[in-house]
Every structure is written in structure tokens, then in C-alpha cells.
Amino acid sequence: MAKYLLLKHYRGGPAAVNDVPMDQWTPEEISAHMRYMREFAARLEGTGEFVDAQALAPEGTFVRYDGEGRPPVTDGPFAETKDLIAGWMVIDVDSYQRAVELAGELSAAPGAGGKPIHEWLELRPFLQETPTITE
């Protein structure tokens, strides 16, 4: 089994087919989308392929260390993750092909008008082994 992270993006990836931003959806459309996500996760729980999923709140802060005795620096000159990542799901599957299959299915969650979003999801495997350095 291999773990994969499926990242849902607000923006930053290729545009979805149904590219209406969620803040323009009706309450019913949001409910239908969230129900699809819950049902998808429940099905994967049943097959033992679900690990975790979380939606992220829009607020957040970028933080970095700024040196001994200095307060942490917040925000910065870079795009903030809160502007890019909407949420994630972690799956544990038998193969890369199964991960792609599930990501494709999750991409079809309903959006505006009840139509599938067909959003692009970023699929990333978890690092399995620590890389070794050879001289």
C-alpha cells in the first residue's frame, strides 16, 4: 500500500471545466458538494483506502523564523497557501493507477448548477524512504 495526498486548489492550477468559484455557489450547491465529498470518503473508509480529509478555512498566516531574539515574521512576498489550497484527502491504495482513478472520481464533485467541477487535483505520493547521499 502507498499513501497519496490529493490536494484541492482554490487557484494556481489549470482551470476546472465548471470554473465558478465556490463563494458564488448557492447554499444548496455547497451542500451537494460537501455531501459528495463525505460520501466519497465513506466509500473509501469501507474499502480501507481512506486515511484523512480536511477542508481548510480561508484565514491563515504564513510564518517563518527571523533569528534569535526576534519575533517570527508573518506573511511575506510569496503567494499564501491559504489562497491556493482548499483542502486535501489522504488515501492509502495498492497502486499509482488506483490513486489516479480515485483522484479522477473526486474531480467530478458537483459545483455550480449541480454540474461536475472536473477540477484538477494535485496527486502526490508520500515519501517512502529517506533519500541517501552517495559520494
Structure description:
With 135 residues, the protein is an alpha+beta fold. It has a single domain, classed as 2-Layer Sandwich (Alpha-Beta Plaits), CATH 3.30.70. 27% of the residues lie in helices and 24% in strands. The chain has three helices and six strands; from the N terminus they run E-H-E-E-E-H-E-H-E. The strands form two sheets. It has a four-stranded antiparallel β-sheet. The two termini are 32 Å apart. The model has no long low-confidence stretch (mean pLDDT 86). This is YCII-related domain-containing protein. Belongs to the YciI family. InterPro entries: Dimeric_a/b-barrel, YCII. It comes from Micromonospora tarensis.
Task: State the main characteristics.
135 residues; alpha+beta; Alpha-Beta Plaits; four-stranded antiparallel sheet; 6 strands; 27% helix; 24% strand; globular
List the helices and strands and how they pair.
Elements: E1 2-9, H1 27-47, E2 50-55, E3 63-64, E4 73-74, H2 81-84, E5 85-93, H3 96-106, E6 121-125
Total beta strands? 6
Please identify the structural class as seen in this structure.
alpha+beta
- What does the average pLDDT come to? 86
Radius of gyration computed on alpha carbons = 18 Å
Number of structural units classed as domains: 1
Give the N-terminus to C-terminus distance in angstroms.
32 Å
Fraction of helical residues: 25-40%
Largest sheet, order of strands side by side? Answer: 2-5-1-6
Number of contiguous helices: 3
Class in CATH? Alpha Beta
